[in-house]
Write a structure and sequence with these properties.
single chain, alpha/beta, Rossmann fold, 5 helices, 5 strands, 41% helix, 20% strand
Amino acid sequence: MKVLIVDDASPIRKIIGRMLTSMHLDYVEATHGKEAMTQLNTHEDIRLILLDWHMPVMDGMALLKWMKTAGLSVRPKVIMVTTVNTENKIESAMELGVDEYVMKPFTKEILEEKIMSLGFSGDKNVQ
């Protein structure tokens, strides 16, 4: 089981990566939605996506729309990790398949709680 971190900010990807490593979770990265598409098509064991909203090339919402029609063999769970916090935008993201929402900045404990609430644990398996 892998986690896909999708964020255009390298420092954010590094911070999240360290958090995931401390939770004993494997991960791959993408800097925008188009790279995420490639990762999803390359790594069939991606079961969770930590997705930023605002990115160049392809933003998080566009990736979510693509995922609805992509015919992925397994639809990964999605946690939106963003600064976007208006109610209507959160609702729009949930309608497109976001399972959880984490506001930046956040702690490891918050991220771990959200990951565990979706049935994932640090043993690299879906619970």
